[in-house]
Amino acid sequence: MGEHPTTVLIAQLQPLTTDVISSAHLVGELLAEHVGVDIAVFPELFLNGNSLSFVRESAVPLGSRVVQRIRDSARRSRTAVIVGVAERSAGFPSDTALCVDQDGEIAGIYRKVHLGEEEHRHLAPGASFAVVPLGGLRVAPLMGGDLAFPEAARAVARTGIDLLV
Length: 165
Description:
Layout: E1 8-10, H1 20-33, E2 39-41, H2 55-58, H3 65-77, E3 80-87, E4 94-100, E5 106-111, E6 132-134, E7 137-140, H4 150-157, E8 163-164
Parallel strand pairs: 1-2, 2-3, 7-8
Antiparallel strand pairs: 3-4, 4-5, 6-7
């Protein structure tokens, strides 16, 4: 850990829209309002309105302007960000935790491994858990159904993480 305690903003918000640009703008607004936060955490599929019925149409590639907007906001605020996004890929999109460092660089991604029955109809499962360097910590993002399986938390804990999100 760094010289000061890490400050984490838990933005447990209900997405109000399926407009990914508006959702990315909201992330930027919240980062600007919370100066001095080291890591900001947003919900699963937050950018896509957390709507499985809309997830395919709203999925974005990691090189999209929506992701760039998140990266720019993280860089301007000097805040690392973890935000849920439907990541476009060949076939079904992935339920992805996008991890952006305080310099606006993509520090890592985590694609949800344990999908629920309904999610399997709309999303592709990830293959492995992730540990990402953010805000001077080793952070392991997990989502929804992952938490129902103790081996998920155990697997990342064995790597020596500092924070489980």
